[in-house]
Amino acid sequence: MFVSIGYYIKVERKRQQRRASEWAFAPEMKGGHTTGGLEWALSILNQEDLYYTEMRRELRALVAEWQACGQSFWKMIRKDCERAAALQTGWIAFFGADGKFLIGRDERSQDTSPRGVALTAFASLMNDPDLSLLGGPCDRCGRYFKKKRANHKLYCDRDCAHLASATKSTNERLQRDREDKLKRAKLRIAQWQGLKRKPKVGWKKWIATAVPDLSVTFLTRAVNSGDLVPPTDSAKERDYAKG
Fold first, then answer.
1. Is 204 within the bounds of a domain?
2. Quick one: average pLDDT of 90-109?
3. Where are the beta strands (DSSP E) in 6-46?
4. 3-state DSSP assignment of residue 92
5. Exposed, middle or buried by CB within 10 Å (0-12, 13-18, 19+), for 182?
6. What is the 3-state secondary structure (H, E, C) of 97-127?
7. β-bridge mates for residue 30, sequence order
């Protein structure tokens, strides 16, 4: 049976003193917060060892859902009752020394499965005072990172930013080159259709001979992709056969 969040918080507030000795966190508790939660979560989120694949997948799924809910833990668990029930299993809610609401994992659950460890790491992450510094995934490499400044959002470091910028510039240049080639190819096709006597070669070879960078391969792919319309004269079939 699913218990409402409000009731859950009220009950745990009354029981926090009695059960204080049973609360366990992987990182150290200081001043009502866990310290090191962000670093611990990052080590799992970016783990490349195949042994930790499932744990990494579970924690990434939790973080992605939390981000999709506007980085609000409460919106996240209210969104899906089944998810809320799963998140509350083996968890403890309490108020820290500074009066802020915290969440933790019950030491008695002894859940050392990949999902259990991922949930514990997620709880620690939610309580970390540096939670707002969590960034990612990086638009280029997909890694999560610790932000160095408020507007540090897209890339994990300068290398990824530079490589992404270079890749974008290259793609834009290639796109411009392609559009220029298509434009010149269309002009040549118009010239072909205006010829009273068509050459013995097909229209593709005719264009490729006149303009070397407009190869037969380029023209064929452009026609197949729908970016270029072939000539519509009476010799169309012959041109396809020879071109």
1. yes
2. 55
3. 23-24, 28-30, 33-35
4. strand
5. middle
6. CCCCEEEEEEHHHCCCCHHHHHHHHHHHHHH
7. 33
Q: What's the CA gap between 233 and 132, in Å, rounded?
A: 65
DSSP 3-state of 20: helix
- The residue range of the domain holding 218 is 170-242
Residue 161 lies in a domain: no
Same domain? For 144 and 187 the reply is no
| pLDDT tens, residue by residue, 209-221 | 989 899 999 999 9
Q: Please check whether residue 111 is in contact with residue 119, taking contact to mean a CB–CB distance below 8 angstroms.
A: yes
Within a domain: residue 119?
yes
Quick one: 116 and 201 in the same domain?
Answer: no
pTM, two decimals, is 0.59
Q: If DSSP codes are grouped into helix, strand and coil, which group holds residue 95?
A: strand
Beta bridge partners, 29, equal 34
Domains held by the chain: number: 2
Instruction: State the DSSP H helix or E strand holding residue 93, giving kind and residue range, or none if neither.
Output: strand 91-95
177/174 Cα distance (integer angstroms): 5
Say whether both 191 and 81 belong to one domain.
no
- The predicted structure's pLDDT at residue 142: 92
Please name which of 198, 189, 195 lies closest in space to residue 228, comparing C-alpha atoms.
Answer: 189
Is residue 87 situated within a structural domain?
yes
Closest C-alpha among 55, 32, 53, 23 to residue 122: 55
From CA 26, how far away is CA 117, in angstroms rounded? 10
Q: Can you read off the two tokens belonging to residue 103?
A: 């969440």
Claim to verify: residue 13 and residue 115 sit in the same structural domain: yes
Report the DSSP beta bridge partners of residue 104: 92
